[in-house]
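Q: Hi! First time doing this. I have a protein sequence and I read that you can turn it into a structure. Is that right? Here it is:
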Amino acid sequence: MTIISCSKCRLTALLRGAVRESLARLLLLASSAIATQGVAAEQARASAPSRYEIGAGTLDGALQSFAHQSRVQLLYSSVLVRGKHSGGLHGNHTVVAALARLLAEHGLTAVAVDSNTYLLRSIRRQVPAVSTVSTPEAVVDAGVAELATVTVTGTRVPQASLELSVPLTVITADDIERSGQETLYALLGERPGLVSHHPISVSSEGRNYPTVVASSASLYSLGPRATLFLLNGKRIAPFGLASNDLGGLVDLNSIPLSFIDRIEILRGGASAIYGADAMAGTINIILKKDHEGGEATSHLGMSQRGDALSHQASAIFGVRTQTGGHLLLAADTSSQDELGGDRRDWHTNNRSRFGLPDDRQLIGFSTQLGVPLGSLPQCQATGENPDSPYCRFDSARYRTLQPATENRSVYIRWAQDLDNSTSLYFSGLRTQSEQALQSSPVYGFLRINPTHPDYALAPAPGSDVNYAFYELGAPRNRTISVTNDVSIGMDGLALGWNWDIGLSHSESRVRSATDNILLRSKLAENINHLRLDGSDNSAFANAIRDSIHPTGYYSVSTLEATSDRPLYEAFDLAAQIVVGAAVTFTRRRSTPDPLQVNDEVALGSTVVEPYNLHGRDSSVFAELTLPLHRTLQVDLAARMDHHQGFKSNTSPRLGFKWTPSRTFLARASFGKGYRAPSLNDARVPFDSMTQTLSMRATPQLMPCIQVEPGRCRVEYGVGSNPNLRAEFSRSRTLGVAWAPTHAFSTNLDWYQVSRSDEFGIADAFSYPSLFPDGLVRNAEGVLYRANRYLANIGRSETQGWELETSYLIRHDDLGELRFRVAAHHLNKYITSTIVEPEPVERAGHETPKLNLLGDVQWRLGHWATTLTVRHFGSSFAYSANEICPKENRDVGKCRNPSGTLLGLNVRYSGPENWSYALVVNNLLDSRPTNYRFYTGGYNASVDDVYGRYFTLAATYRF
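A: Yes, that's right. Below is the predicted 3D structure, encoded as structure tokens:
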């Protein structure tokens, strides 16, 4: 190797270094002079006494009045001031002295972020109280570590504010309290842009019996498969017994509202940040961690009609340990009575009150084509009364409107500083949830033969009997689920990098019991013992019914390491980078009841087998935040995932944020994502009867079992698909945010999410040429079965608008008045499949296009009164791939009407650490109205089934 000395090169480098150093010093001196002048001016204003007139009331209200009168900005978490009261402040004081007087008795201190902004935090043992500080500068050094940035769901890059390049909605603990909702499912279900999956709907998705009870929500009508739920930034295990057609949903009953600090809803694809399942967005549920002191709460609720009684009690206590750590303990218990289907008169399949047909099903004799021939003796005894259950079968009257629930949860979080740069943390949440509901009795047709004792009652030979098995009892399910979410990790600072290494484990264990199941073989054996003349059928019912007890388990264990640091500064902004890697292990176990395995359940699937599946995923990811100009920032993110059994895939995202002024922001993001089949998709995802049918013999089907010329006999059922591929997505968002004053802000965002290779049901019996993988042959190559199975058959595109606006009016005497509005409009939701290649517009069919949530809050002294408004637009009264039925067109009932629900929340926060609240939901006692066939008169996703509902709450803080 030849080394050449270059003294000229060294001299040039030295000169360049000297010039750069001189320019840097000059820039530093100039900046210091400007800053000194600005600070001096602000200090002069801050040191000048001002007149304050702040009345007694909550500390939160006093601080907001102080900020208004002193024209400074205060930054603080609602947890710090909740339940605390102030005696007010009167007279002439400097800004610092006034703030010190307000905070002195509450264990809080102020940190000067700049000359016009203060951050409030709890006083730690090693930091003196504010009352000992005479100037804001004196607390700057002590509080530097407290000015840590906040990591939000929209990115892993630490942010100093929530102004991201992607739309993000934050639901705070105060928002939860103001909403008056008692469960996480109810809270998310009313949010615009979120579609709720009601436990009644979940229990019947793809099933003939309610073998599972759970509730969830998802973004943009794309279903649970496209929405990722996180708990403190960690994946939550899907429900242990998979919801059939919905895929692996997360049961929201497993997380009590009393434990939640905030919820961050990232809208638009987030696969580049969090990987699979985040095609539509991410919902990150963040539990409390810095709570200090104790709080005990009790709620009691009841509908105006005296039913649906609910109880809730919770306690939380947080304390700083003598070693400088923090320990939080919390417990919550809640219960709600079942609301039966017959408790509301509008819950019926009889639509005649709207001028539409009576859809209650006839009970009696009919031809094999379904033409009624006559009623049964029990109906005749009522004078052919159409309202008699022996004349017509109204399934809605038996289906539960709201399940009975009982939840018990405990939560612990511990954090400990190991040294000045390293800390250890641990959190654990355990919930046991019990839910119970019933579906309608089994209804079907029977074909009796001449040996039946009541054969003579038939009006004609070969008549069918349309019969409701009331004596069997309505199938009733009781689901017990136990969820455990545990995480442990360390974080710290090393060589300029903030790092975090954590291990998390989430699991869902589910036991289900369904009674009054109809047994296939027993029904055939005892059919002649069923009497149609009104005789006692108890012995017959006991002979043909049984119960099933399936169990399920799902777990997600993740080891993840992340690290971030600033790279450089440009245009007074910091470029930052985050890198990380994760390994995830999943396990799915299903243990069906022996009656299911042995094909004894009538109207149930015959392909129910136990299985124990394992999966392993790995990923690496990186994010960059780069300032391109003082007004323009670009965000880059990429994630490479490898799912066991599938090839690796990369999900990128590009975001821009333009801030031409401090009051205006424009943003845009573009991303790609994908979702590999989960363990829930690896097995049969729905129940179906296996039937013996015949198919037209074509060359593709040969050889087959021919029962007659030109016909093949096959078993028709369901099956799994080992060739299922990943789904892919593209997402785009565009938005603006405007906040001309501290009192007013508004955000408007547009989104578009498109998916390809979507999962859907492939039917090899109906379309053998399209789905040859569903044609099953024996060892000799003879076709004997045609399956329905999950396959990559579809495409979809959804787009819409979202709006969030807030306006605040403050008056020294009249208090504070705040207006909030959030709205979502689904412009388009089109789908197409291999079977139906023409796009089908689905927006406004299953759920309304327009959803709006708003509130008006008035705060004065110890009182806070909130009026909430939830509005949903009209929806089509027929399916997306159909036209309005003639009977609906004739009476002008092709659209279900829009609805508006009002709520009232009156809260009093007394000076003795007690607070009380009265919440009235559905203030005007609005009734659901739905013209669609066989819905029971309501839409479970949007309608309120309780009517006017009262809740009393009391809280004691110590």
